[in-house]
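Worked example

This section walks through a single chain of length 192. The input is the sequence exactly as stored; nothing has been trimmed or padded.
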Amino acid sequence: MTTTPERWTQGTNPYDWVDGDEDPRQAFAHPVGEKETLANYLRHYRLTLVMKCEGLDAEQMARRSVPPSTMSLLGLVRHMAQVENHWFERILKQQPDVQQIYDTPEHSDADFNGAVADPAVVDEAWATWRDRVASADAWLDAFPEEDLGTTVPRRDEQLPVRDVLVHMIEEYARHLGHADLLREAIDGRVGQ
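Given that input, the structure is written out below as tokens.
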């Protein structure tokens, strides 16, 4: 017989730590049109990353999953700042001279390897991520919905803007699965 872990018996839904009516992601629940739908999924996942990290100190944010992995919640915040920077600034805005945020040719995993238990590193990571998200949102808000099929060059291919937005949603969804496990290992918080 399977028993329910005690931590799951405390709310109306065992996987929620925020009641549905209080979930800030509900603001994105009723999009109209393709652009708003894509933007809302992206905002929803971005906010979920914030919620997954809420209430953690620098040591918890930097805590690694399992050896030899360098993955941590702080590393994920840094990585997603880098992803936002790459896809929106360098690809969609066509600014290839914009510098990578953490990684360099010599240090390709600096986003994760540099995620150390220092409050200043945590503050910098969140500030950088928020700045990249604000820049991306400003660009997307101004981009005409009817132009989502417009292509942008990347290496030897042409990518529709729509595909880049779907890829960003995919990036967050993938890494939020990691965040679920990382957060549960820290304090048992699951789901949502």
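What to look for: Residues 161-187 form the longest helix (27 residues).
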